[in-house]
Amino acid sequence: MANLALATADELLELYRARRASPVEVVDACLAQIAKLGTRHNAFVLVDADGARSAARASETRWQRGAPAGALDGVPVTIKDLILTRGWPTLRGSRAIDPAGPWNDDAPVTARLREANAIILGKTTTPEMGWKAVTDSPLIGVARNPWDPSCTPGGSSGGAGIAAATGMGALHVGTDGGGSIRVPASFCGIFGLKPSFGRVPAWPLSPTGTVSHLGPMTRGVADAATMMNVITRPDARDWHSLPYDPVDYRDELDAGIDGMRVAWSPRLGQFDVDAEVAAITAAAVQAFVDAGAHVDAVDPPLDDVHAIFRVHWWVGCHNAVRGMSNEQRTRLDPGLARIADDAKALTIDDYLDAVAARGRLGAAMREFHTRYDLLVTPSVGVPSFAAGRLAPEALGDVGGDWTRWASFSYPFNLTQQPAASVPCGFTKAGLPVGLQIAGPMHDDRRVLRAARAFERLRPWQSAYARFG
To answer: Between the CA of residue 240 and those of 80, 126, 248, what are the distances in Å?
Structure first.
């Protein structure tokens, strides 16, 4: 193909088997993309070109011998800079963390990718502690959307979203505590999956607790399924993790959604939506009808989900910085410092009330999914907006509350159910728009299957040719 950097993981593995490409060529192509676009868009906080090339040579030797080792041997991947990687600093987008470490541990997802002999190119950018749904910080500056550098890629997995869209690796690990996979997936025009909580082992637990998930960000649904086969393998360090399920996430991926019951909720009953986003996502829902699903316009029972999430997230951000010295706090993103201080006004009763309300919300959504196999919404109610801002200009100063515009994603962090964003169109300005597909808790395969059915009816991968 014209640019190996834009090949999917599945395509790369097939090329390696046929000896029509080598991991060395692929890594060089990805590093060329990083050199060409990485600095412009601020996708990486660390790139290990020498280490990646060394790993690629070892992989090339195994493939030449006809003895690849691991499900992802030679496939280039990236890790978000909230996730531990042995030997590399994990700075979490912060100037308050000492780069000297020590950095002796891999997080479970990093360890599983190494065991599969994926080639880790580097670490992608994040806002400080992943606290907001855009990607900028005092440490890394402002990350920029690959489709329009004047706009944000979203966050907090913004660097991964940029890297996925532009061919800076085939597979990318993001985290999602309130939309941090799905918002950049929507803004960058890629696929992103927030799995059921506990399906991908996490250690250490995020400071924001059990609202935070890890998952794949890729240029296509099949690659995300391939990645799930690796990163869902167990790790005893995560006591929240679900029992290991040796299912193959690629099984029945192409089985379609004929006969499934789909709820279409264009506003989740309460949220504002930009007119272009509303029109694009409403038109996209026709694909589910075309695939044989039964689609009803219906809103799920979410109550005041914003208030519930805000308590959980503000307390989590306070938890992320509470052990820091006064000197360290002076280095923080002022927005993070403000909401961490605002959290001090919350009482124990406020938090316990939010926990109880979260439980009621989760139970209501489980009952909702006894009637509907899937819930479909816009991924984000607005298209990407100016880089360096916390919110669209029309919303003004939201007082640090990014959740005012990223409102379609965090309900499913509270309920912990799987949810994905698939590209479904472009605005008149050429900015991607995402469609969110949520499924019942533990049924990640159903979400992947629905996303794959949509992808086959409304293919989007050709859009990446502009980055070749």
So the answer is: 21, 24, 22
